[in-house]
Amino acid sequence: IDEIEALSSIYGEDWCVVDEDEKIYCIKINDCLDQPKWTLCLQVILPPGYPTAEPPIYQLNAPWLQGQDYMELANSLEEIYIQNVGESILYLWVEKIREVLIEKAQSSDPEPDIKKTSEEVDEDDGDDFLLDYEPIQEDPIKMSNYITSESPEVDEELPSIHHGNPITDRRSTFQAHLAPVVTPRQVSR
Q1: Count of CB atoms situated within 10 Å of the CB of 11
Q2: Interval 80-126: pLDDT, tens
Q3: Domain RWD spans what residues (predicted)?
Q4: Global pTM value
């Protein structure tokens, strides 16, 4: 309880209580206070045995955090826990994440390409989420025959799949996957 109160007063608006009864908290961490380029949300669940017997259960949420970057940061957090078993470690975790974000901001890594969330999208720029896709103009009769043909000899080309940027909201991450299809076989493939 003391740790939660301290973190709440240190981080102010960046500290969020998701569920007081279940001890679920979230903190938004930036690389700097003025104009942050790199941001990450750390969500933690404090199990009944924390801090003496159990580590916090955590989730790192950032659309740009994937692969090797994710593994390195997760390993760093777990190492901090191992070095401080039985102690409160959330502050150490937050500061380690901030340190990583500051290193990213000072390195040559380009600024992350973050799309607006649905709440942030202005009514006039809603077209930002449309793919550049123009339907193929085909002869309708020929197309109808093609669609109804279920012949296994026809080796249809698999449509290209377009992957959107992941969007994280609370504990859920969403990512769109779109493909233009013209036959039922392409749908199942």
Answers
A1: 15
A2: 998 988 898 899 999 999 888 888 888 756 665 554 444 444 444 44
A3: 2-104
A4: 0.55
CB-CB contact of 77 with 179 (8 Å): no
Distances (CA, A) of 19 to 8, 45, 47, 93, 137: 14, 9, 13, 20, 53
The class level of CATH for 1-106 reads: alpha beta
Please say whether the beta carbons of 96 and 75 come within 8 A. Answer: no
Cβ–Cβ under 8 Å, residues 31 and 19: no
Selection from 115, 104, 110 nearest residue 163 by Cα: 115
CA angle 73, 75, 79 (to 5 degrees): 120
**Residue 72: CB atoms within 10 Å:** 10
Buried b (16+ CB within 10 A) or exposed e, 100-137: bbeebeeeeeeeeeeeeeeeeeeeeeeeeeeeeeeeee
